[in-house]
Design a protein that fits this description.
By secondary structure, this protein is an all-alpha fold. The protein has one domain. It is built from four helices and no strands. Helix 2 crosses helix 4. The chain is rod-shaped and about 105 Å long. The termini are far apart. 5% of the residues are buried.
Length: 119
């Protein structure tokens, strides 16, 4: 391991012009490192946004499937189906803008929990 004193001795031997070159090299390396960190951070943000949008699309698809199954086809939704739908809805909502699903959520949650009795 090189000691600080040895580094100073080497720099003294190299002279002031060499010291300027070394400092310049280190400054350039630091700028490049910061630039790379910025690029990596941007790539991570873009990937995270894509994952978020993909998850939101999957949750929306699941809610539409449940809506079609219960609201459109059966006309009622058991309590467990409503509970499941609400759990999906809460997670979907937490992912951001979603005005598309507000009406479907409202209609689904207004369904009776048992089938209508036919006379």
């Amino acid at each position: 391991m090189v000691t600080f004193r040895e580094v100073l001795n080497i720099l003294a031997l190299l002279g002031v012009p060499s010291l300027g070159a070394i400092v310049g090299y280190l400054a350039k390396a630091l700028r490049e490192q910061k630039k790379e960190q910025k690029r990596l951070l941007q790539a991570q943000k873009e990937e995270q946004e894509a994952i978020k949008k993909g998850l939101q699309a999957m949750l929306r698809s699941q809610m539409i499937n449940e809506y079609n199954k219960w609201f459109v086809n059966k006309g009622y939704a058991p309590i467990w189906a409503k509970d499941n739908f609400e759990n999906i809805w809460v997670q979907y909502e937490s992912l951001g803008e979603n005005g598309v699903m507000d009406k479907i959520h409202e209609e689904f949650m207004s369904l009776p929990t048992e089938p209508l009795k036919k006379k």
